[in-house]
């Protein structure tokens, strides 16, 4: 007959286990701390009942194999192992939340959750149902090798995503640039890929394995302020000091750039026809580069016209002979370029 000394503790564990599941669902996902407290309380109570009743969660006693008692004994241990898994997973969620990295670490979090559930499932199979785990693990290993070979590219994306998350090269919301020129804000990271929202409001899906092999420039670190180097060629008809003063006044009057750190002017080169000037300034974010560029071009044109400066001809135009008498010098602005500091 079923051991009466074990019947009441096992029945109480079943009641506590199902009650814990009910309360766990009532708490909802929006209250992770409350869920964790519930999980700890119910798991601790169930463990206390097991200990006071002298019941082992790792094996069934011979007296429990008789009659319907085996169902109560097995269900109690299954519930105990399930609450153990939920408690461990709750601690993982809380740890990641306290470190303020819920988005960037969700790949690692999913991996830990999968390991916990796999370990608990094997424990239930081995300890509760008494099935041999060794052959099962060996068979699973062979199957895993076959699946791994078939899904080699997918697994490369998965482990590359985990490596990128651990390295914290970027987080969701950062603006990054890849070595192939692709640039955008990180909108989402998942097991397979990273989604970038470009300045043209297109979503570029980059596989994690491809991303891990490329150089990544994070334009949001240490902050999103972004330096721009903008080159203008001025006709060599005025003193370089006057050119520098006019260009600096233009930068200080631009509303699209930040004033701290202050903008600067660098005289790069001079020849018989032109003074090459580099305008260096900072914008609040990479997305502000285009408006700042447009305003600077307009202000350079207006400033040169107001102060009697002429924009120089492109160097390649000199190969075609001297300019026509009376014509205004042509202007050139080098292609827009940027660099982070």
Describe this entry's structure for a reader.
With 341 residues, the chain is of the alpha+beta class. It has three domains: 4-136; 164-218, SH3 type barrels; 226-339, Alpha-Beta Plaits (2-Layer Sandwich). It is built from nine helices and nine strands. The chain has helices spanning 4-27, 32-52, 69-98, 106-128, 133-150, 152-167, 208-213, 240-252, 289-307; strands at residues 175-178, 183-189, 193-197, 203-207, 216-218, 226-235, 264-270, 274-283, 337-339. Strands 4-3-2-1-5 form a five-stranded antiparallel β-sheet. The chain has a four-stranded antiparallel β-sheet with strand order 7-8-6-9. Strand 2 (183-189) and strand 3 form a beta hairpin. Helix 1 (4-27) runs antiparallel to helix 2 (32-52), helix 3 (69-98) runs antiparallel to helix 4 (106-128) and helix 8 crosses helix 9 (289-307). The longest helix is centred in the N-terminal third of the chain and has 30 residues, at 69-98. The protein starts with a helix and ends with a strand. Residues 322-341 have low confidence and may be disordered.
Brief summary of the model shown:
Keywords: Cell membrane, Membrane, Transmembrane, Transmembrane helix. With 341 residues, the protein is an alpha+beta fold.
Give the helices and strands, then pairings.
Blueprint lengths: L3 H24 L4 H21 L16 H30 L7 H23 L4 H18 L1 H16 L7 E4 L4 E7 L3 E5 L5 E5 H6 L2 E3 L7 E10 L4 H13 L11 E7 L3 E10 L5 H19 L29 E3 L2
Antiparallel strand pairs: 1-2, 1-5, 2-3, 3-4, 6-8, 6-9, 7-8
Helix pairs in contact: 1-2, 1-3, 2-3, 3-4, 8-9
